[in-house]
Hints:
By secondary structure, the protein is mostly beta strands. The protein has one domain. Helices cover 12% and strands 40% of the residues. It has an eight-stranded antiparallel beta sheet. Strands 1, 2, 3, 4, 5, 6 and 7 form a seven-stranded antiparallel beta sheet that branches. The two termini are 37 Å apart. This is Lipoprotein.
Amino acid sequence: MDKQRTTQQHINKTSINKLCTIIFSSVLMTACMSVSPESREHLKANHVQQTEITTLDHTTILKTAYPRTQTEAIAYVEPNDLDPYFKTLSAHQLTPDVLGFIHPTITYNNPQGELRYLIIVEKVQINNGYISSCRACQNTADFLIYKHEAGQYQLVNSALDQTQVPSANGHLQYQYASDLQKNLQPFGKNMMGSYVLSSYSGAGGDESSIWFAVHLPDEGKVQAVEIGAAGRDTSSFYADRPALATSIYSTLKLIDNQSTYYPIEVIYYHSDQSTSSPLQRTQFIYDQQKQGYVEHSTR
């Protein structure tokens, strides 16, 4: 079986268990994803002077976020040997065993209307001088928020080594950064954020999907975090017994209740239903003590 499929089973056992009770399915993908992200806060931001600049110089990023970056690459990484995914990104040696791939800048306005620049640095492990790009390899990511003021970029806030990101085959999912850009919106009274949908396949083609979020406050905890189950499709698994197959999908929306973290409502549907009536509505509430979303079924 493809290692990529089995790797993705590690994303969230609890979420899939709960979703399976909705669809009355007895087949479950096992294991869970490690959840212990570290966060680092930086100085409070002042009002920003908006500019038309949409990219950050890599030298600025390295000096502000990685002051101890290696001056010369240690890893032996030939461009021709890289996965096509990495060939479009600039790589920098962050530590002797980690390469950082800098993604294109994402721009957005904070709740006060001030321009912000989000940099995602994807971290890739190096083993014996070569990049780790196996199908079972998963990467972490750093999230860096900048502002532009008085002609200089300043690091406003950041989170390092975030693990709750959709990753497999040695890199983040292909549309991760573009989906974050597309779905940017308020995630709290004074916080922007975004979300993405990630799907993966398990044994026999049983496909599941998960909602992920990224919190982007100017001050406080920047965090990449799993929201919860998004759906499931067992049609491939039951290809020889289609009567047993079930397909569930969902939609997501933020509930603006002027709280620090907005509740997230996920509405589940049967894809084969003749009506548009939802199967179930579930709210995911962010628990600041647990530093994660907790499921609260509403129907």
